[in-house]
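Q: Structure tokens for this one, please.
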Amino acid sequence: MRAELTGRPCRRLRGLMQIVILNGVNLNMLGKRDPAVYGSTTLSQLETLIYGWASDVGVTARCWQTNSEGTYIDMIHEAFTGGVDGLIVNPGAWTHYSYAIRDALELFPGPLVEVHLSNPEEREDWRRVSVIADLAAERVLGHGPEGYREALTFLAGSS
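A: Here is the predicted structure, written as tokens:
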């Protein structure tokens, strides 16, 4: 789901853990943006993989993506008020400087996993800073799309 806020809580399906995946700025360009760094998987393909992996580990997932920082924060707020049990976040470049996103994530009472397709700690110096790292129960860096599977598996085990 891209930048569409429902204002409704997640519907609990068969008592399964509810996970929201929040993808941030420029992730809509996956498959086109520097495939040597980010891979050739598109966002749509990634979301299809995520839904399958979620089913495999016995949780339900909702995927959201936006290029608007304010909308990203609204999505975090909706997760906070909407019965979500865990978050997987890939804020993209906002990871490195957005204290507004960090402040919103601090409100979320459940576990969150920070995921990055590439490993920012092995890239440019400015990418090595994560203002959300200390909020994350787990960080998955540089594992490509599989990092989302690892994050789902981690959260499924934390319930």
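A few notes: The first helix runs from residue 35 to 38. The radius of gyration is 14 Å.
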